[in-house]
Automatic annotation (TrEMBL):
Annotated Basic and acidic residues bias: 45-54, 62-79, 153-193
Domain of life: Eukaryota
Residue ranges constituting the UBA domain according to the UniProt record: 95-142
Region (Disordered): 45-89, 153-206, 245-264
SUPFAM superfamilies membership: PUG domain-like, UBA-like
Name of this protein: Ubiquitin-associated domain protein, putative
PANTHER family noted in UniProt: F13M7.16 PROTEIN
Amino acid sequence: MDSVIGQIVSMGYDQELAQKCFNATKSTDLNTNIEWIEKHLEQEAIKESLKGTEEGQQQQHQEQKPAEEKPNEESKENNAEGEQQKWGPISHLVDPLMVAQLQDMGFSKNVSEKAIFMTQDQKTLEAALAWTEKHQGDADYEEQLLMQITDETNKPKLSEAEARQKARELQNKLREERKKREAQEELDKEKRRIMSGKSMGDAQREIQELKKRQEALQLKQQREQDAIDKQRMLEQLQRDREERFGKKFAGSKPTEQQAKEPTPFEKFQVGIKQVKTAHPRNIFLDKAQVCLKTIQIYIQNIVNNPTEEKFRKINLENKAYQTRVGECFGAKETLLYLGFVEEGTFLANHNPNFEILKQALTFLDKEISTS
């Protein structure tokens, strides 16, 4: 409760109004409380409350001020300096562990903190991800969200118009900073393009070679399966022949191909290494690491919440999945090796093998630390 009232007061509203707002909404969601204030601010009862508060402050100020006292220029300058320092980050108002998880998935610190702050009434990673997907097209998506910091012992009471003016000034300032940042990002992007241009051809050839090797491996596996099917057919013919002539059928030993069939976990290990090979850091920066960390989060959610069905499904149309996993060569197959099956626009794991999933988490920790 105190944190919500403090946030409302930090935006320039009166303490009494903030308390009255919270008593009416009983909600910890900042947006809900602000909507209530905007809707009821013009009602007579609140007007009288604000008016009484302002008159009381003016009367107290006049009693304390000597008649002969004149404005002090130095004091005005100090107040101006203090006014410039009233905006601060929201880092202390959000869960640092959830912020770290979103940053591991590739989101910036500003976006991570903003997504968690705007969905703090739900307090789940899924809600924060849904917020990023909904607002990623906003012009101020990457801007840092700031809150007004006031001195509780001597804070000015802002009217509604003043509070809105402060918000507009801050928004304009953030937009200017965003333009500068975007210009710098374009410059950095061009530098990276020039630096990686020479080795891009080699990387593409390596990816093509990797695809050829994977196709050759699939062809080899198909031939081995054909050999197994052929062996089974011969055995069936042998059984039929021996049953017809009354001879005992001793059976056959497993073929060499059957003995060498890799386990699902071994296929998962190969798939993860293929993801890292196909996306070298000198060309794709941290794309492979972000992919592996996202897969790790999918698995960790299932292991930590074994009875929650919602953690066993992955939306293939989700923007976060598409950019962090779907675009990576071989990444989707690694999930299939762990028991996920494709059902329309979802990957689902209805009967997870928790032993294999825990092995996968240990393996991912090692691969992420060495990438």
